[in-house]
């Protein structure tokens, strides 16, 4: 009888260890559930989708490297650019990684930005064969200029429309749609981030070109977290500094640009 009891105890304790091992081995470090990182993936080389449908890009590689360094587990979600900040506010996501300009008081009131990881600028983009628009001064009140919804480019396009400089600001969900409309001649120009424009042109040479001087102030892309999530912000900032110090940041720049 005693032998039986010991055997039973052994089995129960083995089962308990088994369950324990399962729960503690699932993650990539922490026992916590994966942090949800939201992006809008028509923004190469920062945020894009590969041939297999995976969300990828400079932002994703950098977040993955930082997460590994800081013992965090992350998963990516591709949503509308105008849904990124609302997703954090509704506690449906933990991090925005979307080439998002952090020098924006409206955004700063709603989310907390980490240390900027990339400096960028907006440019004016026209069809490759367009010889009449050579800069912002050539825009006229009969023209349509596009920008991606809720972005700094859309803000500039709206400002031009409000000032009567252009006829209409065309606000589109995806950068890829804007590029398509430009090729089809539906719109006259796009206001878009320079490195992203260059990435589209590199993939489809002869479709579009950058004209004139950069528009507005330089932008500083940063990752964002929910307002007041200092613990996560601290980890992102420390991880970013570590990636700069150990050369991973430069490797990713070389890989994606
Ligand atoms: N840099 C611009 C902004 O902050 C555009 C960002 C668009 N990013 C994207 N993943 N679609 O508004």
Features:
binds arginine; five-stranded mixed sheet; alpha/beta; 2 domains; 257 residues; D-Maltodextrin-Binding Protein, domain 2
Question: What would your notes on this structure say?
Answer:
This protein is α/β, with parallel strands linked by helices and 257 residues long. It has two domains: 31-117 and 222-256, D-Maltodextrin-Binding Protein, domain 2 (3-Layer(aba) Sandwich); 121-218, Periplasmic binding protein-like II (D-Maltodextrin-Binding Protein, domain 2, 3-Layer(aba) Sandwich), CATH 3.40.190.10. Helices cover 40% and strands 24% of the residues. It is built from nine helices and twelve strands. It has helices at residues 2-25, 58-70, 84-89, 105-108, 152-162, 175-184, 194-203, 230-245, 248-256, and strands at 35-39, 48-49, 55-56, 74-78, 95-96, 111-113, 118-127, 144-148, 168-172, 189-193, 208-221, 224-226. A five-stranded mixed β-sheet has the order 4-1-5-12-6. The chain has a five-stranded mixed β-sheet with strand order 9-8-10-7-11, with helices on both faces. A two-stranded antiparallel ribbon has the order 2-3. β2 and β3 form a beta hairpin. α2 packs across α8 and α2 packs antiparallel against α9. The longest helix is centred in the first third of the chain and has 24 residues, at 2-25. The protein is globular and about 55 Å long. Residues 9-30 have low confidence and may be disordered. Bound molecules: arginine (ARG). Arginine (ARG) binds next to loops.
